[in-house]
Amino acid sequence: xxxxxxxxxxxxxxxxxxxxxxxxxxxxxxxxxxxxxxxxxxxxxxxxxxxxxxxxxxxxxxxxxxxxxxxxxxxxxxxxxxxxxxxxxxxxxxxxxxxxxxxxxxxxxxxxxxxxxxxxxxxxxxxxxxxxxxxxxxxxxxxxxxxxxxxxxxxxxxxxxxxxxxxxxxxxxxxxxxxxxxxxxxxxxxxxxxxxxxxxxxxxxxxxxxxxxxxxxxxxxxxxxxxxxxxxxxxxxxxxxxxxxxxxxxxxxxxxxxxxxxxxxxxxxxxxxxxxxxxxxxxxxxxxxxxxxxxxxxxxxxxxxxxxxxxxxxxxxxxxxxxxxxxxxxxxxxxxxxxxxxxxxxxxxx
Length: 350
What we know:
- α1 packs antiparallel against α10.
- The chain has 350 residues and is an alpha/beta fold.
- It is globular and about 65 Å long.
- The protein contains 12 helices and 10 strands.
- It has helices spanning 2-26, 49-60, 103-113, 132-136, 156-175, 193-199, 202-205, 212-222, 245-260, 265-287, 292-310, 320-340; strands at residues 39-45, 68-73, 91-95, 118-122, 126-127, 144-146, 149-152, 188-192, 227-229, 237-240.
């Protein structure tokens, strides 16, 4: 009886999930298209010597450029600044003053100098596809546009990290079909400058080292601003997965901790449904029938399928069975981590 109820309920939720994806892909926006000459790109960096060369090279290979690039140095202690010499005239490199600190401050300093009507934030550890701005010209404007991130893993364990990232983002795309999204990534985020300046709640969260993207999303949602999520793989920037289990858990704990500081009833509801899904699976596996494993693997693959297709990573779906079996252990470990390791460092700061 319990097995039948579990399968029925969560297969029904999957139907709702798929319907959200369909609605999200069919949403029409009749606003004008983005004009690249009205976009200022802001890239905050701190000790990114390993990554900046790759990002700089990908930018120099762009087939179409925005109005300007503003690079903001957040007190780098390595050779990062020296890598940004001899850039074209549409690039500005500035640094935070002694009394200024953090990515949030760096972004806001860049915004003050920006000439564009729209701000596009990129992380310093990404690679941008050559046709990025060509594709962006086909997108209708919005006050906030959440653009895709492709997190690439090379080893088996890194692909598991990648799937974990896509799991939340695939749910986010479905939610966007019915309501405002629940997550965004500052690695690839585009917003209206004047709207941001009016609703920015920086004073409330300025002492939290990271989370600029989630607090920005919360501000736009709170003030009922137009928000869209984009499913165009040509606009997907690439970044690498964490390289160790420690850095992976540190990153995830940091993300979850900042999310708990934002009151979002819809996100909390989805988290509760996810918890019931996992606990129900473990209970049924122990006390009822091992065949529940097959149901969970199939359902997880169905959840991943539309997102992996959109992000051009269909080839990693074969790792889903391992992800399905390991995810309850990971979920439990994250729960323990939140109890004992809440203050995670980011770029050497809490």
